[in-house]
Amino acid sequence: MASNKNLLMLPGDGIGPEVCVEVRKVLDWMDRRRAVSFDVSEDLVGGAAYDAHGAAISDATMDKAMAADAVLFGAVGGPQYDKLGWDVRPEAGLLRLRKEMDLFANLRPAVTFDALLDASTLKPEVIRGLDILIVRELTAGVYFGEPRGLQEWNGAERCIDTQAYTKAEIERVAEVAFDLARKRNSKVTSVEKANVMKTGVFWRETVTALHAAGGYSDIELGHMYADNCAMQLVRNPKQFDVIVTDNLFGDLLSDCAAMLTGSLGMLPSASLGAIDETGRRKALYEPVHGSAPDIAGQGKANPLAMLLSFAMALRYSFDLQEDADLVEQAVQDVLSAGKRTADILGAGETPISTAQMGDAVCEALDRRAA
Ligand code: IPM
Ligand code: MG
Question: CATH 3.40.50: which residues of the chain?
Fold first, then answer.
């Protein structure tokens, strides 16, 4: 039977394809055990798309992404593509998806699993029970600002990038942060560099005004400079609930927050567009870890971030809260049972492979659903 749930998988490069295979297993499990089925199609992005079509994403793939209910994205990039031209480098595919799908709100949770406390470089008491959410603006700022590039300046060559934000671009991402905080601990920290950057001052003023006028009096709003935020994340991350910040600071701070949890291989993300008249929103889900070319094809990759990204898709795109919970609980179960891929290995432990980890999650799902 045709499903009304349309999922586009873009595995990409490096470890992307191998972690996506493990999502297929969970999709099969859901079809069998929960009678939840998806129309899944798969296509190329990044270096893989360049090899096939000479572009980091083809127009046809873009069309599919625009029409999909959710896109599951693996990872892009690899050393063989490092010297490609700017417009065809693998990252250009991801940036085009973000921009054309208008995925302005990037949700990057950093949650520590009790079973993995020792995998973090920080002391257990600093990170035990950590549950923070970074909401990163994803379609504007210095990633897309114009003008950019080389220019002549007083007879010399110089190069510029432009940090630019409209009020509406700040407001819509801050709204997402406030709304999400309401379902959590009702605290938002807005992060910029208002001590140095005009866009930072504008960001702070805009968020403050929205908070006052937008019906958010139940949300506690604080402001922090980005450099201080990086320091506070390492010093005492549990002071945060939701952090909302611009594209570039969000890129940096989310890597920092990711490492608090012990492994980049554990962290999912969701990139969401605006809700349209039909109640639908474009969305792309991807693990934070990237393509990890050094371990690609060796069965060493940790598929849990990809599986948790799929759980986010179940939650945010398909409103399947119960199924999302199941996948997340199954991940907890395998960790509690001591299953570890190489990236989260403790002293004296033996790693399991990518495929074994995916199988273990499906077995845990079986037990949960029994
Ligand atoms: C991320 C990545 C990307 C970014 C790269 C691959 C373009 O670092 O998603 O955090 O800088 O946004
Ligand atoms: Mg990054």
Answer: 114-135+166-261
220 lines ligand 1 (CB under 6 A): no
Residue ranges of the chain assigned to CATH 3.40.718.10: 1-104+273-370
What is the 50 CA–ligand 1 centroid distance (Å)?
18
- Looking from the CA of residue 254, the nearest atom of ligand 1 is 10
DSSP state string for 205-271: HHHHHHHHHTT-TTSEEEEEEHHHHHHHHHH-GGG-SEEEE-HHHHHHHHHHHHHHTT-GGG---EE
Among 212, 210, 246, which Cα is nearest to 229's?
Answer: 246
Fold (CATH) for 114-135+166-261: Rossmann fold (3.40.50)
Looking at every residue in the chain, the average pLDDT score rounds to: 95
Residue of 84, 94, 289 to mutate, ligand 1, most atoms within 8 A of C-beta? 94
Query: Which ligand sits closest to the CA of 91?
Result: 1
Q: Which residue's CA is minimally distant from atom 5 of ligand 1?
A: 91
For the CA of 291, the nearest ligand: 1
Instruction: Decide if 251 is catalytic.
Output: yes
Model confidence at 77, in pLDDT bands (50, 70, 90)?
very high
* Residue 176 in tokens: 């997402």
Q: What homologous superfamily is domain 1-104+273-370 in, according to CATH?
A: Isopropylmalate Dehydrogenase (3.40.718.10)
Predicted TM-score (pTM) of the model is 0.95
What is the whole-number distance in angstroms between the Cα of residue 251 and the centre of ligand 1? Answer: 7
Atom 6 of ligand 1, residue of closest alpha carbon: 91
Q: What is the pLDDT of residues 206-218, one digit of tens each?
A: 999 999 999 999 9
Overall residue count recorded for the chain in this entry: 370
- What is the C-alpha to C-alpha distance for residues 91 and 61, in angstroms, rounded to an integer? 15
State if residue 13 touches ligand 1 by the CB under 6 angstroms criterion: no
Give the residue, by CA position, lying nearest to ligand 1 atom 12.
251
Overall average pLDDT of the 146-163 stretch? 97
CA distance 303 to 150: 40
Residues 335-348 have a mean pLDDT of 90
246 lines ligand 1 (CB under 6 A): no
